[in-house]
């Protein structure tokens, strides 16, 4: 019963993160935070399921390494855009 409650909470976290990601945001930082929220919910569901079947947690360490790399890359792009454009608004970027 407790596992079903945890899965429901994690699923709600995942849905909220996706709703924030697909909504029209003005700032790049909000998009990056919503991606990290989605990654956190995926990490929690992997932790729950791997501990439920009593499997080794090496895959979680690999997942965390890639998550940290993704977060560092996103922050470096954010800093680069702020330095070149002066803000992180999506309207001020010419993406073409």
Automatic annotation (TrEMBL):
The chain crosses the membrane at residues 6-22, 29-53, 59-82. It comes from the Eukaryota. One of its GO terms (cellular component) is membrane. Pfam families: Oxidored_q2. It is a multi-pass membrane protein. It catalyses: a ubiquinone + NADH + 5 H(+)(in) = a ubiquinol + NAD(+) + 4 H(+)(out). It is found in: Membrane. Belongs to the complex I subunit 4L family. This is NADH-ubiquinone oxidoreductase chain 4L.
């Amino acid at each position: 019963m407790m596992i079903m409650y945890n899965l429901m909470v994690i699923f709600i976290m995942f849905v909220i993160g996706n709703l924030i990601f697909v909504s029209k945001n003005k700032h790049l930082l909000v998009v990056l935070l919503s991606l990290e929220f989605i990654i956190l919910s995926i990490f929690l569901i992997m932790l729950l399921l791997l501990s439920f079947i009593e499997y080794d947690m090496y895959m979680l360490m690999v997942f965390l390494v890639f998550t940290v790399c993704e977060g560092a890359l996103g922050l470096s792009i954010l800093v680069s855009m702020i330095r070149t454009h002066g803000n992180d608004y999506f309207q001020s970027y010419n993406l073409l």
